[in-house]
Write a structure and sequence with these properties.
By secondary structure, this protein is α+β, with helices and mostly antiparallel strands. It is 23% helix and 41% strand.
């Protein structure tokens, strides 16, 4: 499976404006189409299919050329963000 990478620039206002990049490496997992549907189709052979999904490989922060670990709570929030997944799927499909 091809791997993709996206970088999001983030600024944190902590008295100073601290900027860093959030780097996400991921793979696109292609979904399957619906099968066995139709007027005379066998209901036992019906498969609803599955949507495309994202498999996150690495998530890290870059600041001044140095990689930093993303805290696990933040990493879980990133992995569960459906809007981010949809955007990464669209970006991967466009690039592929």
């Amino acid at each position: 499976m091809p791997r993709f990478r996206t970088t999001l620039s983030i600024a944190v206002l902590d008295g100073n404006e601290t900027e860093f990049d959030l780097v996400i490496d991921y793979e696109l997992i292609r979904g399957t189409p619906e099968t066995g549907a139709g007027y005379l189709a066998d209901p036992a052979a019906y498969d609803t299919g599955s949507p495309d999904d994202v498999s996150f490989k690495t998530i890290y922060l870059m600041r001044n050329g140095i990689a930093h670990v993303v805290p696990s709570l933040i990493q879980n929030l990133i992995c569960d963000d459906e809007a981010l997944k949809a955007s990464l799927i669209a970006e991967a499909k466009e690039a592929a």
